[in-house]
């Protein structure tokens, strides 16, 4: 009988690049500093590599282009892959969803970079596509899960206009924090949650005294 084969140990292919986490972290820090210094339009791979103290090859091993590098940074720091809220009620889920959206939009990185990228997106369709898949995709995934759960509980009708509902959930907060840059007052998320819940349920939003 042939001898029993020994399990083989997987090894990286010869010549394969092993990406060091400390180098990746240094490059990400350099990206953040460059964006803060010159903005997305004027930022270059060369400047990022120089600031990080690495060669351009080290950057290109991790990201094929400047846009991919910036989008990855936003994902890693500001737009985390969070699970959908599950409090058992539409209002509770919306409150948590808006809290997380506000946290992401108020993050220094997102607050500085996203408006800059939106301005660039007006001239570059590729940026529009990336932002749509990263930012809108994340919002849509979580928002759709919240709406589906509310529909299954009987809080929302099965023929709900999901696209309009998603706009109602995130649109006002995004407009306030990313477009007009208005401050977020103490009770604004509570009021916004109440108004959004009322709108989704088909009732008039409750009156509130402006801050």
Observed structural traits:
9 helices, 211 residues, Tetracycline Repressor, domain 2, mainly alpha, Arc Repressor Mutant, subunit A, single chain, disordered C terminus
Describe the structure in your own words.
It is a single chain. With 211 residues, this protein is an all-alpha fold. The chain folds into 2 domains: 21-65, Homeodomain-like (Arc Repressor Mutant, subunit A), CATH 1.10.10; 90-200, Tetracycline Repressor, domain 2 (Orthogonal Bundle), CATH 1.10.357. It has 9 helices and no strands. It has helices spanning 21-42, 45-52, 56-62, 66-77, 90-106, 108-121, 125-152, 162-179, 188-200. Helix 1 crosses helix 6 (108-121) and helix 8 packs antiparallel against helix 9 (188-200). The longest helix is centred in the middle third of the chain and has 28 residues, at 125-152. The radius of gyration is 22 Å and the shape is elongated. The model is unreliable at 1-10, 12-16 and 203-211 (pLDDT under 50).
Describe the structure concisely for a colleague.
The chain has nine helices and no strands. It is an all-alpha fold. The chain folds into two domains: 21-65, Arc Repressor Mutant, subunit A (Orthogonal Bundle); 90-200, Tetracycline Repressor, domain 2.
Q: What's the CATH H-level superfamily name of the largest domain?
A: Tetracycline Repressor, domain 2
- In DSSP terms (H or I, runs of 4 or more residues), the helix count works out at 9
Helical content, roughly? 55-70%
Indicate the structural class: mainly alpha
Radius of gyration: 22 Å
How many structural domains can be distinguished in the coordinates?
Answer: 2
Number of strands: 0
- The CA-CA distance between the termini, in Å, is 85 Å
Mean pLDDT: 81
Q: Which overall shape is indicated by the principal axes computed on the Cα atoms?
A: elongated
Poorly predicted segments:
1-10, 12-16, 203-211
Q: Determine the strand fraction and express it as a percent band.
A: under 5%
Query: How is the biggest beta sheet arranged?
Result: none
Q: What is the annotated CATH architecture of the largest domain?
A: Orthogonal Bundle
CATH class of the largest domain: Mainly Alpha
Q: At the third CATH level, what is the topology name of the largest domain?
A: Tetracycline Repressor, domain 2
What is the H/E string? Answer: HHHHHHHHH
């Amino acid at each position: 009988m042939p001898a029993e084969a020994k399990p083989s140990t997987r090894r990286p292919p010869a010549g394969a690049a092993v990406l060091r986490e400390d180098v990746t972290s240094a490059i990400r820090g350099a990206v953040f500093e460059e964006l803060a210094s010159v903005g997305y339009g004027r930022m270059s791979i060369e400047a990022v590599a120089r600031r990080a103290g690495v060669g351009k090859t080290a950057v290109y091993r991790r990201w094929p282009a400047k846009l991919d590098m910036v989008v990855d940074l936003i994902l890693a720091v500001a737009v985390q892959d969070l699970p959908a809220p599950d409090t058992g009620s539409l209002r509770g889920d919306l409150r948590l969803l808006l809290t997380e959206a506000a946290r992401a939009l108020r993050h220094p990185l997102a607050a500085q970079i996203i408006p800059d990228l939106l301005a660039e997106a007006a001239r570059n369709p590729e940026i529009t596509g990336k932002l749509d898949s990263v930012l809108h995709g994340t919002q849509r995934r979580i928002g759709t899960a919240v709406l589906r759960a509310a529909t299954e509980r009987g809080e929302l009708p099965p023929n709900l206009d999901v696209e309009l509902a998603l706009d109602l959930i995130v649109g006002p907060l995004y407009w306030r924090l990313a477009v007009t840059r208005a401050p977020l007052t103490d009770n604004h998320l509570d009021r916004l949650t109440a108004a959004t819940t009322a709108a989704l349920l088909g009732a008039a939003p409750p009156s509130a005294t402006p801050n």
